[in-house]
């Protein structure tokens, strides 16, 4: 719980049992737990009458199902979230969670006594004049002062060794396994850093940062770090239109490549901004398939913008980005060529999944087949939230075709909402699918 609080993480719990009716309680509690209360229950009326009186506080506390449900509630509420229990409407519960994540305030305060002592202290929050409001927040904290400065020679690794990632420097991470040599896959990784413009701005009105970063690969099966890679990247950004105000924050992306054997991994990326004097980390679980044994397979689908990257990328020349007020300076050609090898994709992927109708979506995926002489039929569809197709494309990957599909899809005909891009492949003997979601605003 202390790690959740320090990482600014709210906890939400879902009980997949759904609705547990009083008459079903015996099944949910069987076999009985090895405890005195369960093996030696107090004398009660017949089962049917017993379950009708389940709201009796003693019975509720002694019952393992209700205790589990109440425990999820206590834990979630203490971390600022809530629990979805004793209901079959799990979709409604997920909707409530998404609503919470889309509508919240981040409040800060200075405690009157900042001395340590590792003593839990309560927190209360109220909205004057609105006693009817339901407010969810973390109910307490432990005074311990600010996080210690990063002084270790292995500060990057220290940022990525905790159970929870560090959020002092906002980071995002994505990874896309692609066929490599033999059984190994080339995993295209993109790490994004977000920083406040005011702290990056220098006297010449340019935004500069020097970022050192590291990625640790943890093998899930062996619970062991199997790879480490790290470098540094320098960014120099300027306003395209000096007459317009700069945004509050800027995001920049760092691409890199990792070769991995088939298996399940956790990527732990960390970065330190020299300009900000702080660092952060982000974790990502991935599965690397064995493309060499696949009769027919699709890679995951990378998304981007057809008119170019919307964030500055450490290896690219200046181009339009998400906020047209900022562009990246041109890198020296030699440096650009050296960095181009870090991204095998034909474009810079976006980690955002939000687009507008004026955008054209750029998608990339690869078709893997053991028999290169066969033909593969692809059905590419964009489905709405009701699973109804809104756009459809058919494509044939002929014999000898490398199967690298780079498709541009205009979004002008799509109404605002959530969509799924689904690709289905068929070679008359095998079928395979891949899908990813996005939102049009």
**How far apart lie the N and C ends?**
35 Å
On the 0-100 scale, what is the average pLDDT?
A: 81
- Shape verdict: globular
Helix content: 10-25%
Pick out the low-confidence regions. 42-58, 315-340
Structural class: alpha+beta
Portion of residues in beta strands equals: 35-45%
Largest sheet entry: 5 strands, antiparallel
How many helix segments? Answer: 10
Give the total of beta strands: 21
Report strand order across the widest sheet: 11-10-7-8-14
Essential attributes:
Immunoglobulin-like, 10 helices, alpha+beta, 5-stranded mixed β-sheet, 441 residues
Topology:
Layout: H1 2-6, E1 13-14, H2 25-28, H3 36-39, H4 47-52, H5 57-62, H6 64-78, E2 83-84, H7 90-102, E3 120-122, E4 140-142, H8 155-159, E5 171-179, E6 185-196, H9 197-200, E7 207-219, E8 224-239, E9 249-260, E10 263-273, E11 278-288, E12 296-298, E13 302-305, E14 326-328, H10 333-340, E15 354-355, E16 360-369, E17 376-383, E18 389-397, E19 404-410, E20 417-426, E21 431-440
Parallel strand pairs: 1-2, 15-21
Antiparallel strand pairs: 3-4, 5-6, 6-9, 7-8, 7-10, 8-14, 10-11, 12-16, 13-16, 16-19, 17-18, 17-20, 20-21
């Amino acid at each position: 719980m202390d790690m959740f609080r320090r990482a600014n993480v709210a906890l939400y719990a879902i009980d997949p049992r759904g609705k547990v009716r009083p008459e079903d309680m015996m099944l949910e509690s069987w076999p009985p737990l090895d405890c005195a209360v369960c093996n030696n229950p107090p004398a009660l009326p017949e089962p049917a009458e017993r379950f009708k009186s389940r709201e009796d506080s003693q019975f509720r506390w002694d019952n393992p199902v209700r205790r589990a449900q109440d425990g999820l509630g206590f834990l979630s509420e203490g971390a600022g979230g809530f629990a979805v229990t004793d209901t079959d409407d799990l979709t409604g519960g997920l909707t409530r969670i998404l609503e919470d994540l889309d509508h919240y305030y981040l409040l800060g305060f200075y405690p009157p006594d900042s001395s340590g002592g590792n003593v839990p202290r309560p927190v209360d929050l109220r909205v004057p004049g609105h006693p009817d409001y339901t407010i969810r927040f973390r109910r307490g904290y432990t005074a311990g002062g600010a996080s210690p400065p990063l002084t270790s020679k292995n500060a990057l690794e220290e940022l990525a060794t905790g159970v929870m990632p560090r959020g002092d420097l906002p980071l995002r991470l994505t990874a896309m396994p692609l066929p490599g040599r033999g059984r190994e896959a080339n995993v295209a990784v993109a790490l994004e850093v977000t920083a406040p413009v005011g702290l990056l701005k220098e006297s010449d009105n340019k935004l500069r940062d020097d970022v050192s970063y590291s990625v640790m690969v943890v093998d899930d099966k062996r619970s062991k770090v199997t790879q480490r890679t790290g470098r540094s990247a320098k960014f120099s950004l300027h306003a395209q239109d000096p007459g317009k105000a700069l945004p509050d924050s800027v995001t920049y992306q760092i691409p890199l490549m990792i070769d991995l054997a088939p298996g399940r991994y956790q990527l732990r990326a960390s970065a330190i901004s020299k300009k900000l004097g702080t660092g952060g980390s982000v974790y990502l679980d991935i599965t690397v398939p064995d493309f060499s044994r696949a009769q027919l397979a699709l890679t995951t689908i990378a998304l981007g913008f057809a008119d170019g990257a919307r964030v500055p990328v450490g290896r690219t020349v200046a181009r339009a980005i998400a906020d047209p007020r900022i562009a990246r300076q041109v890198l020296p050609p030699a440096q650009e060529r050296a960095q181009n090898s870090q991204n095998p994709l034909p474009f810079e992927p976006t980690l955002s999944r939000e687009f507008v109708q004026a955008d054209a979506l750029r998608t990339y995926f690869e078709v893997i087949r053991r028999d290169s002489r066969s033909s593969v039929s692809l059905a590419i569809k964009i489905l709405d939230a009701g699973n109804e197709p809104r756009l459809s494309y058919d494509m044939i990957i002929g014999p000898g075709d490398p199967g690298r599909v780079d498709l541009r899809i205009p979004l002008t005909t799509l109404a605002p909402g959530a969509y799924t891009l689904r690709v289905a492949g068929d070679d008359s003997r095998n079928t395979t699918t891949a899908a990813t979601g996005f939102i049009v605003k």
